[in-house]
Design brief:
Structural class: alpha+beta
Largest sheet: 6 strands, mixed
Oligomer: single chain
Low-confidence stretches: 1-5, 17-28, 46-62, 101-115, 234-241, 368-374
Number of domains: 3
CATH superfamily of the largest domain: Outer membrane lipoprotein wza domain like
Strand order of the largest sheet: 1-15-14-16-12-13
Radius of gyration: 34 Å
Helix content: 10-25%
Shape: rod-shaped
Order of helices and strands: HEHHEHEEEHEEEHEEEEEHEEHEHH
Distance between the termini: 13 Å
CATH architecture of the largest domain: Roll
CATH topology of the largest domain: Outer membrane lipoprotein wza fold like
Number of strands: 16
CATH class of the largest domain: Alpha Beta
Strand content: 15-25%
């Protein structure tokens, strides 16, 4: 009987101390409550300050990487300009002896029979043509090169008619790397090269690619593009800021990073703590909790669901009270960002139980056994 009374007294004293204990939020950051009013205010703010669907502009505000909208246009403009290594097919009408003077070494068009003459722009950007000599063609468009060559030939021939075509584009290229089927260089031709065109020429994105974090490197600077933004609602970037019209330039590098680099970490009192991979840059708090098995009904405090986020090196903490049924709708509207940490705190009773188990190993189970013994 005495042992039973001691156990009851121990339970009462520790319970009084434990009921006042509540797992606090991080003390070095202000906690922002996730409420319908707060979400409505966020939807009314600019995209860079929202917790709404992640676009390239939002990511630029978070990690400092410029969005693809800030990508400077190619300095060459829309028309293709000839360069070193390009192979040209030149015909001077009524003067077949000119184009036949320099036979082509390889049949680039793959046709049978005697190949037509071809001319290659050398390392100095010049093309050597009979009677015209060394003609500087690098940096010119096809029409400009034709007119310059005709002007040179006009010194020896009356009103020469010149036809100039590009047989092989070798001077300009972009490089596609990462999660694509066939990484490697892609030649730029007379059709303007867009990001989507470059990715499709590389065989398309693999299922493991993160379409929301395509990186374009130009001039030593990296820019981020969200290809999935047009499918993520009205808050997505305008079409002109995406791959349909975004032109690439010579030397650009297009990287498709894997999805594993964009993860959200779920821990605390959930059934299956784990690191979750975002779905093309999109994952809601509701989805994260669901994929982690949901809150542990025996140990979780539904009133303390936290999201910890780093913004410019400063931690931001958001708290969701998941006890009311309407909290599920709020969790579905709150979209996470890469590297977010979702933490579910333990209930006061769970903290008390763990504290007693550490201070008095075996005593709690013994007391329970005494109270339940017939």
């Amino acid at each position: 009987m005495a042992k039973f009374l001691c156990a009851v007294l121990l339970l009462y004293l520790c319970g009084c101390a434990g009921t006042s204990h509540r797992a606090p939020a991080p003390a070095d950051a202000d906690v922002i409550a996730i409420t319908p009013q707060w979400l409505a205010e966020q939807r009314g703010q600019p995209a860079a300050a929202q917790t709404a669907p992640i676009t390239a502009a939002v990511e630029a505000a978070v990690d400092g990487t410029p969005a693809a909208a800030a990508l400077p246009p190619p300095v060459t403009g829309g028309a293709y300009r000839l360069g070193v290594g390009d192979v040209l097919a030149i015909t001077v009408w009524d003067h077949p002896e000119l184009t036949g003077a320099v036979p082509r070494q390889d049949n680039l068009d793959g046709q049978a029979g005697p190949p037509a003459a071809s001319f290659v722009i050398d390392q100095r950007g010049e093309l050597h043509f009979p009677f015209a000599g060394a003609v500087p063609l690098a940096g010119l468009t096809r029409d400009q090169a034709r007119d310059l060559l005709a002007q040179r030939l006009a010194r020896y021939f009356r009103a020469p008619r010149v036809t100039l075509n590009v047989q092989a584009y070798r001077s300009q290229r972009v490089y596609v790397d990462g999660e694509v089927k066939t990484p490697g260089p892609q030649a730029i031709n007379d059709i303007p090269m867009t990001v989507l065109e470059a990715l499709n020429r590389a065989g398309g994105l693999l299922p493991t690619a993160d379409q929301s974090r395509i990186v374009i490197e130009r001039g030593g600077q990296s820019y981020r593009l969200n290809l999935a933004a047009p499918r993520q609602g009205p808050s997505a970037l305008p079409l002109q800021q995406h791959s349909a019209t975004l032109l690439l330039a010579d030397g650009d590098v297009v990287r498709a990073p894997p999805r594993d680099e964009s993860k959200v970490f779920v821990g605390g009192e959930v059934l299956s703590p784990r690191a979750l991979t975002m779905h093309d840059g999109r994952l809601t708090l509701n989805e994260a909790l669901g994929e982690a098995g949901g809150l542990n009904p025996q140990s979780a405090d539904a009133g303390q669901v936290y999201v910890v986020r780093q913004a410019h090196g400063v931690p931001q903490v958001y708290r969701l009270d998941a006890r009311p049924a309407s909290a599920l709708a709020l969790a579905e509207q709150f979209e996470l960002r890469p590297r977010d940490v979702v933490y579910v705190a333990a209930s006061p009773l769970t903290n008390w139980h763990r504290a007693i188990s550490q201070l008095f190993p075996g005593e709690l189970s013994s007391a329970v056994g005494v109270t339940t013994r017939p």
